[in-house]
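User: Second chain of the day. Same drill as before.
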Amino acid sequence: MFVRSTLLISLAVLLLAGPPAARAQTGTLLGTISDTNQGGVGGAEVKVSDLTATTDHTGAYTIQDVPEGSVTVEVKADWFEDKSQAANVVAGQDNTVDITLDAKALQVIEGDLAIAEAYNQTFDWTSDKLSITYIAPPTRANIDLGLYFRNPALFPRDTSGESPVTAGDWDFPVPADAPNEGLQAFEEGSIKDSICKTPLTKEERDKALLWEPAVEFLTKWDIDKAQGLYYVTYAVEGQKWGGSSTFAPQTPQRVYLHEGEIWVEVVFENWVSLGNKVTDSNGDGYNEIFAKVAAAHYTTEVYNRLAGDYLTHKCQTLELREILNVMLDDLYSRTKPMFTSVIGVPYDVPGQGILQYPFVVLTHSDGSVNVLLVDSITPEIKNECGGDGDGGGCSCSAAYNSRFPAAVLALIPLPFLAVFLLRRKHRRGLCS
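Assistant: Same format as last time:
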């Protein structure tokens, strides 16, 4: 009786398990998704038929119960080209499939430039929430310029309550308890009311940097070596001309490098009266001066750091991703920016059309949106009528050798050739 019961139980188990061909027909698929530098790609979607998994921060993934035999592993990840790879799954085993992804290429489609040009014909950075910026080539300096320069999200301020002040003699002393305490920020006699009265060449003007992110770049590199320029900011912005304004009456904006010298543009708010000694030389609606930073505030090493990697190194897609991540961390307390989408995801520009291949779309807490178009090319520019004879060889016009439409290039402010800020509201003027 006991033997018969045992046989019946064994038979039942075999019937429930099914025939041998139906048992153990799946295996486990696992592996790592990496970039071409062997770094793990976190957050990638790995799919086999209707089974999916998401990689962890190291790029690792595991998919169980994958049917045995030949399968296709499909991978999608932000910043990378989609990739499919054939694999063979052995039932009852762990099957390792590692896949390397290629980053998406930096490029700008001509149709996207046409949309940007149409939108920017009426763009006003002081009131509009959407900005579209074209950046080429993709250096750190140009990325900073493209994100920080007249970004609507960074200037949501009401200055209507500021009381008028009158600027006196040019006096920008370094504050107390700072290195070089009491020294002037600028070399005596160097202050000019027009960039064309400086020794800057046209090429040097075309390679303008932005003061704030450039100094931030230096402080992250070596805060001790950068602190001289850091306190120049305080010297300029701390001069209130006897008033008590909430906002700085003037700020250092653009930086120019000239034969070991650092020159800076200082832009004044409209409540600062400058008399007849300063005018709006570039027609952007704000008065400005140009001055040489006193040599005591920086070293040759600091100058070379700006003139080297910061200004000339062309970044690739993943480098730019990391730079933007750091920049967004720095900006978070001010505007709480977030990636809405990244490279190659179409974006609808209201009333203009769909951008097919933006690099990133950033959304800020106040609803402002920045769309960056980034290209790997370096457009060429050729002077047609030479210098103006006023210290710096300002060109009165230019001819472009480029694959982009003339209508788009016509919008590009020449002093910012490196970053094509397609924004007509405040175009930069040329030396006359």
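Confidence is low (pLDDT under 50) at residues 13-17, 381-429.

User: Great, on to the next one.
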